[in-house]
Amino acid sequence: ARETYVAARPKSAAIHAKAREVMPGGNTRTVLFYTPFPTAMVRGEGTTVWDADGHAYLDLCGEYSAGLFGHSEKRILDAVKAAMDRGINLAAVGEKEGMLAALICGRFPSVEQVRFTNSGTEANIMALAGARGFTGRTEVMAFRGGYHGGVFTFPVGVPVSAVNLPIPMRFADYNDPAGAAAAIREAGDKLAAVIVEPMQGSGGCIPATREFLQALRDATAETGALLIFDEVMTSRHGYGGLQQRMGITPDMTTFGKYMAGGMSFGAFGGRRDVMAVFDGHKPGALPHAGTFNNNVLSMAAGCVAMGEIFDEAAAEAHFARGERLRAALNAVCAKHGLAMHFTGAGSMLNPHFRAGPVTAPYKAAPAEEQMRELFFFDMLAAGIYLARRGMAALMLPTTDADCDRFVAAVEEFCAARKPVLT
Ligand code: PMP
């Protein structure tokens, strides 16, 4: 399989070889690295991407959830082009940022005020800075298996002492309501914030239980720590995010990914009294700088993406399509009696090469890692592009026929790999 992969991709191989000279590992994004060399993509249209060697793929990776609108949504392209025609860097506030802020505040229950950044990582950094400023406390609690950006990567099985962060951190186990509540109470008035993904995305598309989120809500309310939902990935799971679907309102929420139509984006928002720590009208306001925070391309695309395209009906239909797809995939796994199943919520899903259910993140065994690798390369060979870990993040233009094609490819994988999987 490896030989076939290499033989079919001379141009990707050459791109990698050149890049390796001047970038460590030949790329600038850890998630895109895999051996022997990653497939280089050169073009996208709708739900199709083409690699440098001319192969076409059904794009189910969806730019790790930032590609919600597909590669050629005309309204977004028009908005970006119109913004470009008026000048890209204006070094000033503009009208669009207030419009996009109003759209976001209007739909997420926890967000009374919001500010923009360039990425989800920065949004989390700023939300934590805000929480620390507001509470006057220093420590932050996160969960094993969580991911909140490049500097906030907390894989299961990595000693906490190895996490090199400028913020003093505490960790608890995901989906363990009693354990997390006890840890929050123990931290008491040292704890400024608890940050949690309502579905762990990078950790394997593992949704939080309602009971777990409620325990975090109750315990933080008791101790005065702020509860921050990282909805960088999950805000697509409902018109008002996963928080609205779960019926739990955090104090702050962070966003990113698809919200600016695919342009670079991040945002953090929350209660008006908390966000007031950034209010420049007040003496001693916390600084929040960033040359590209309100860049006109992201602001213009965001207004169209959130104001015109991803409305309530679109959000619900998209969530439902993903639920149907996951059910169909799991029916295939069950039919073949494999130790394999898909977790997730709505339009995002992830395979696990073990018997279900998976309700908490885990350190995969070498055999599981091997299956994950096989799955990714088998899907590529079948013309389906996923995240390397197998995650899919459906785009709005993804059709039922696209989903059927994925299910058929997974069925073939199950049949072919049955001897190793059972
Ligand atoms: N939080 C979560 C939950 C994410 O999934 C990601 C990105 N995968 C981030 C934060 C970081 O966002 P960005 O890559 O835009 O910095």
Automatic annotation (TrEMBL):
<dbReference type="InterPro" id="IPR015424">
    <property type="entry name" value="PyrdxlP-dep_Trfase"/>
</dbReference>
<keyword id="KW-0032">Aminotransferase</keyword>
<keyword id="KW-0808">Transferase</keyword>
<dbReference type="GO" id="GO:0008483">
    <property type="term" value="F:transaminase activity"/>
</dbReference>
<protein>
    <submittedName>
        <fullName>Aminotransferase class III-fold pyridoxal phosphate-dependent enzyme</fullName>
    </submittedName>
</protein>
<dbReference type="InterPro" id="IPR005814">
    <property type="entry name" value="Aminotrans_3"/>
</dbReference>
<comment type="similarity">
    <text>Belongs to the class-III pyridoxal-phosphate-dependent aminotransferase family.</text>
</comment>
<dbReference type="InterPro" id="IPR015421">
    <property type="entry name" value="PyrdxlP-dep_Trfase_major"/>
</dbReference>
<keyword id="KW-0663">Pyridoxal phosphate</keyword>
<dbReference type="GO" id="GO:0030170">
    <property type="term" value="F:pyridoxal phosphate binding"/>
</dbReference>
<dbReference type="Pfam" id="PF00202">
    <property type="entry name" value="Aminotran_3"/>
</dbReference>
<dbReference type="InterPro" id="IPR015422">
    <property type="entry name" value="PyrdxlP-dep_Trfase_small"/>
</dbReference>
